[in-house]
Structure formats: structure tokens, C-alpha cells
Specification:
By secondary structure, the chain is of the alpha/beta class. It has 10 helices and 9 strands. The chain binds adenosine-5-diphosphoribose (APR).
């Protein structure tokens, strides 16, 4: 596992492990990069196939849905089909193992994600979702939650039963269009989830940013809040980001770094 890393990176993993072993309150923020090794494209990746001429930023907005609800709904049905068969990778598993281990130590781990997939949960983690859940729907007008077989995960669970109906659905209460229960650009984050994230960031001793471009606020501001309150910042990302607050950079894939990190901490 460590053999996959350069000697310079091993030194950084060891520094991070020493720091983490000495601290109790850890806040972790994950983004699309943690699911990349499971085969789910990140938001900044160019889209492929049917959707190659569209940008995620132009579809995941309330304006786009108001203008062309069918287009946006079809895109989400396609994304659901893409994500349905995906499984947690070693990064998700390592975080779940660390979280499980922390129950028998005095470490307090708060895991926050910007992702709308359920790979952290599949790996066994408890996680707070800041940007909603790909497998939930609600009315775009009256906000009533909506459950329908053609948009629920069970409809995609096996390749044979894929049925991603692109027809729009209307709310039985108000006739508004049903939309995914996801936070789009320009929309507010769910208040309770945001409170958990803000509190954990402000109170932590180490903040770990994993697989996020740190471009989208308010989530990107959590590291600033942590730093402001004296926390050390660790970043796990194979590519540089605009986050200038980082104390330790672990520049490789999360699926390589996280298992190595928890092993070095003595958890595996
Ligand atoms: N391990 C770790 N990081 C990786 C990996 C990997 N294997 N592969 C890619 N990355 C990094 C990329 O370098 C990039 O910095 O993951 C990051 C993904 O960035 P984004 O696609 O911008 O994803 P994210 O930061 O989660 O986006 C934030 O923007 O579109 C909105 O609401 C959406 O939640 C999303 C938010």
C-alpha cells in the first residue's frame, strides 16, 4: 500500500498520521473526487455520450429546470442510471473503518460530503449530506417529498431492471413538477446539515479536505472557518486546488492515500 507512494509522499502521510493520532476532533469534507475511483465522473470532468455538449453547471440550476424541466429531469435520470451500479472504493472503505475504530477511542470524526451518491453509506459510514441525495425527489412547487419507482434506486439496482423513465412527473397535491431533492447552484443548503458542518468545522482540531475542487461555496468556506479557529488543514487531491490554507498536502488519489493513512495511524 505504502509501496505505491513516492518516498516524499510517504513522509507527508507519516506527518499527517502523527498529527491525527495526537488530535481528537476531526472534520472531514469529501467531494466528487472520492467517488472518481468508483467510476463516477467528477463535476469538472467533461460529460460524455448523450450529454457531452452540456455542462453540469448549466443543468443543475433552478433556472434550467424552470426553462426546460424535461431536459434537467432526463439528465438526472441518466445520472441515476450511471451511479446505480457503482460501489464504494478503498477511500470510502478506509473512512468507514476509521469511523468504526473511533467508537472505541476518544476521537470524534464528523464526515461531511458534497456528494449526492450513497457510497459513504454503502461503505458503512455515518455522513451528513450538504447537497442532497440523488435517490430522493420532491415537488418543485410545494416541496412535498415524492417517491416513485422509476426514480428510486431499486429501479436501477440490476442492469436488467434499468428503467429510467424520462417522462416528467407531476405532484399529486399541487400539480408542480417533481424534481430531484438536490441542492442546485444558487439554492440554500439544508439548514440542519449546514449547522452540523459549520459546528464541526469551527470546533475541529484537524480539517481534512478530500477530492474537492474547493470552488463551490459555502462548503469551500468550511476549511477557512476551521483554520480561523486554529485547526490544521490536510488536503487529499492528486491535483492542486485554490485552497491556500493547507498545512499538509497529500497529492495522490484518495483510494491510495486513505488506506495508507489509516494503516500508518495503526487502524488497519
Ligand atoms: N482522489 C481524490 N481527488 C480526486 C480524485 C481522486 N481519485 N480524482 C479527482 N479528484 C479531485 C479533482 O482534482 C478535483 O479537485 O476531485 C475534485 C473534484 O472536483 P469537482 O468536480 O469540482 O467536485 P466537488 O468539489 O465535489 O464539487 C462541488 O459543485 O457541481 C457542484 O454541487 C456540486 O457537490 C458539487 C460541488
Amino acid at each position: 500500500m505504502l509501496a505505491e507512494l513516492s518516498s516524499a509522499l510517504i513522509v507527508e502521510v507519516e506527518r499527517a498520521a502523527e498529527l491525527l493520532k495526537a488530535k481528537q476532533r476531526i472534520c472531514l469534507l469529501t467531494g466528487a473526487g472520492i467517488s472518481a475511483e468508483s467510476g463516477i465522473p467528477t463535476f469538472r470532468d467533461k460529460q460524455t455520450g448523450l450529454w457531452e455538449n452540456y455542462r453540469a453547471e448549466d443543468l443543475a440550476t433552478p433556472d434550467a429546470f424552470a426553462r426546460d424541466p424535461k431536459l434537467v429531469w432526463s439528465w438526472y435520470q441518466w445520472r441515476r442510471q450511471l451511479v446505480a451500479s457503482k460501489k464504494p472504493n478503498p477511500a470510502h472503505t478506509a473512512l468507514a473503518q476509521w469511523q468504526y475504530h473511533s467508537q472505541s477511542t476518544n476521537q470524534q470524526l464528523t464526515l461531511i460530503t458534497q456528494n449526492v451518491d450513497d457510497l459513504h453509506e454503502q461503505a458503512g459510514s455515518t455522513v451528513t449530506h450538504l447537497h442532497g441525495n440523488l435517490w430522493r425527489n420532491r415537488c418543485s412547487r410545494c416541496e412535498t417529498p415524492y417517491q416513485n419507482q422509476n426514480s428510486s434506486k431499486s429501479a436501477y439496482d440490476s442492469e436488467d431492471s434499468i428503467d429510467f423513465d424520462e417522462a416528467l412527473i407531476t405532484c399529486q397535491h399541487c400539480d408542480g413538477y417533481i424534481r430531484p431533492d438536490i441542492v442546485w447552484f444558487g439554492e440554500s443548503l439544508p439548514a440542519q446539515a449546514w449547522q452540523i458542518a459549520e459546528d464541526a468545522a469551527a470546533d475541529c482540531e484537524v480539517f481534512i479536505s478530500i477530492g474537492t475542487s474547493s470552488l463551490v461555496y459555502p462548503a469551500a468556506g468550511l476549511a477557512q472557518s476551521a483554520k480561523h479557529n486554529g485547526a490544521k488543514i490536510i488536503e487529499i487531491n492528486p491535483y492542486p486546488t485554490p485552497n491556500t490554507l493547507v498545512d499538509i498536502t497529500l497529492a495522490a488519489k484518495a483510494g491510495v492515500i486513505l488506506p495508507a493513512l489509516i494503516k500508518t495511524m495503526g487502524i488497519l
